[in-house]
Amino acid sequence: MSDMPTKILLDEKDIPTHWYNVVADLPSPPLPPLGPDGNPVGPEQMLAIFPGNLLEQEMSAERWIAIPEEIREVYRIWRPTPMFRAHRLERALGTPAKIYYKYEGVSPSGSHKPNTAIPQAWYNKQAGVHRLTTETGAGQWGSSLAFAGQMFGVEVRVYMVKISYQQKPFRRSMMQTWGAEVFASPTDMTNAGRAILEKDPNNQGSLGIAISEAVEEAASRSDTNYSLGSVLNHVCLHQTVIGLEAKKQFEKVGDYPDMVFGCCGGGSNFAGVAFPFLADKAAGKNVRLVAVEPTSCPTLTKGVYAYDYGDATGYTPIMKMYTLGHDFMPPGIHAGGLRYHGDSPLVSQLLHEGLIEAVAVPQVATFEAGVQFARAEGIIPAPESCHAVRACIDEALRCKQTGEPKTLFFNLSGHGHFDMASYDRFFAGQLEDFEYPREAIEASLAHLPKVG
Amino acid sequence: MSDMPTKILLDEKDIPTHWYNVVADLPSPPLPPLGPDGNPVGPEQMLAIFPGNLLEQEMSAERWIAIPEEIREVYRIWRPTPMFRAHRLERALGTPAKIYYKYEGVSPSGSHKPNTAIPQAWYNKQAGVHRLTTETGAGQWGSSLAFAGQMFGVEVRVYMVKISYQQKPFRRSMMQTWGAEVFASPTDMTNAGRAILEKDPNNQGSLGIAISEAVEEAASRSDTNYSLGSVLNHVCLHQTVIGLEAKKQFEKVGDYPDMVFGCCGGGSNFAGVAFPFLADKAAGKNVRLVAVEPTSCPTLTKGVYAYDYGDATGYTPIMKMYTLGHDFMPPGIHAGGLRYHGDSPLVSQLLHEGLIEAVAVPQVATFEAGVQFARAEGIIPAPESCHAVRACIDEALRCKQTGEPKTLFFNLSGHGHFDMASYDRFFAGQLEDFEYPREAIEASLAHLPKVG
Description:
2 copies of one chain form a homodimer.
Chain A: E1 7-8, E2 18-20, H1 43-46, H2 52-59, E3 64-66, H3 69-75, E4 83-85, H4 87-93, E5 98-103, H5 114-126, E6 131-136, H6 140-152, E7 155-161, H7 162-167, H8 169-177, E8 181-185, H9 191-199, H10 207-220, E9 225-226, H11 233-239, H12 241-253, E10 259-263, H13 268-282, E11 288-294, H14 299-302, E12 304-309, E13 318-323, H15 345-352, E14 357-361, H16 363-377, H17 383-402, E15 407-412, H18 420-427, H19 438-445
Parallel strand pairs in A: 5-15, 6-7, 6-9, 7-8, 10-11, 10-15, 11-14
Antiparallel strand pairs in A: 1-4, 2-3, 4-5, 12-13
């Protein structure tokens, strides 16, 4: 047996004791979210949908925030997650690069999402709130919050983007197994949903619309809060357990990445894997951090850095971020979790300040990468994760040409067990690469809110 | 953080170096398989479908058989598998029992099956055979062999029981992702399949029929061997990595089980978790080993111990085992992997000699147990695994009544990610408990082959 392990494992004692807050290492402080009047939104307005303890994290500039023991206890169900050295993929590619990946698909819901679902359910319960609404795209977030609610006795209602509800019926069954209610969004249960359906009864939904619905319900019920699976600072914060563990795992094998890749929709997966390395970069270390997005929803690579709504209908505060315009409707690609018009303000700011990079990859090529990965490494990746696989393989192939033995690292954010219908279509040659939707983006960018 | 871990993990160096062969500890030698003439089948006849190196294992009485390094290298993708202490389930049940489970769902195909698929593909390749046929019930075995074939460059063709092919289309996509061909059995590609379809064009298939088809093709092509996912001695042998690791894990926490549970269809899962503990029992240790089967296919609890065919149509040699008769057609329950008329000859002999026990549990109660487990522990179990969960929970509830703090252990053989349609039906109240199918069993037992 070779001395270099295939899996780099940590002990339960190595589950991080603190989350890392990248705000402490930003060159300039983050810009605040603004209300309809153009003034910063105070915590008091946010308390209608979020508990105070989470808002404190949202606003915090502390570098390290302690993880409560009750949360670490639940993390122990699947954390620390394994890191793999992709020996077989390296051989299949014939690259001199070393490839490592961290695998978040070992969580009960099969992705990185429970890293924040668990603390969000727990902090709400601490604040006396026993009911949560949320949205879900591919279903990874909704099932994660369903699981988290079940762990702490918190009721969960999920608005699921209609196209995913149809493409991934078994994600719904999974949420129900964990006791959650699930509806296909847009629904006729909210003003936001009804307004969309009135214009377009066949609307396939989007993350933006589903967010509008979930926020509207939470704001209108005093017993209910809202929970978001990405974008916000406290969500990115919770996900840093990924990168923090990865750094310990690299230390264990005496290596360190030259480049870190994470797929990027709302930004929490990328933040989770990359931010802890950004701390090193801020301290002078040479490491490139690459956010990977779909060419069909190219927020970071083709969007503008501007104030925009987090949802589709203007229900949320406006945030400074890369955006394609809040009413941009992305094509129905199979990586449902990456179909978001905006991006995390923290990820956006870091890109704007040149501390991270972004690339966009087309749909068919991501599935090619996913199949190549599955045939080499065994694990079948989620379509979202295939984006990171694609970008990492592309870099490994560049290394093959240049002969550079770079150390590459990506986060395999989830497995594809609920995405096999998408793989089916790929094998049948039915997947398309969408043209860069320039006109739709230009149209929606014309609707950006005016600030100041 | 409590000192008692949730996950009991081993290092890659702890992957067993040898498989344990229970034949060395049997009170009497196993009875040989017999041919149509009533005489023992010699290895030369078996060589038409199996390689010599695997037949050697099939016949061996050596207690320990070395695991080749190339196989241990692939095992490292997912082994050692974690063992969990089910703290949350214990609390939910209010039982004084301690509950442990080993989780085989972390393998790429999501079950224990790759433990034998990997060595079978490798030994065939060593013997110069680059093409394999097989059958699959729930799809767990077929996807595991597809994965194994991909690891070693061996082509794989899978005959999939028609009812599962329809209920679990995504298992098929998974096999295709790993490059295998898949057909719904009975097919019109074999004599066995055509004979069944002639009598009953809507035949839903069974493991027995699919075995007939795969064996027929392998026997008729010199470039092709057959691979079986359960029943045979060498399959049970390979699965013992489960129990061997479990014993190390119990040692690590200073505990030992009073009872071990495994679901039992063809017997390989039960053998894998239980046989290594049987070695201790043979050495005087007090441990109860319980095979758990469905009441609708009650081979061990209602069958007879007799010589019978391994397949449905009499293509294979006859083996001494518990059987419901080779032409018994089990009801279409959702635990497709447990719908087999016979059982492993080794498991059967151990039951006959009183060294192990068997219980049968009804379908609806197994899903109730699965949901209770998922809500407490997070992981959603496969319907097959739900049988072991049910039996273990039943015992934990008995402990609650008697106050006994027993140590209970079961193997969670796989996850239920491809079985959510079955959970859906359970939630919709559409699952039935089948009556003990006495008449069908009596009819098929009348067709047992005559011996001697």
